[in-house]
Request: fold
Amino acid sequence: MLVEASYTRDKAELLRRANLRLDRLRFLVRMAKDLKLISIKQYAFASEAIQAVGLEVGGWARSSRAQPQ
Reply:
């Protein structure tokens, strides 16, 4: 999806869907921790990685909105 967005002029919908998938992933990782399927250390690692990707997607979305079409 992010690769597709890099080749598209109108990135807004693709970035919105990517953000939605990140939210789902955050939820699933949190559930896995709560159900003790992953350790706290694994949860922390996954959460940091998801957060980093989320910041990238958010920055990309903001910059694409700021650019004239």
Remarks:
- The helical segments are 2-6, 12-34, 40-66.
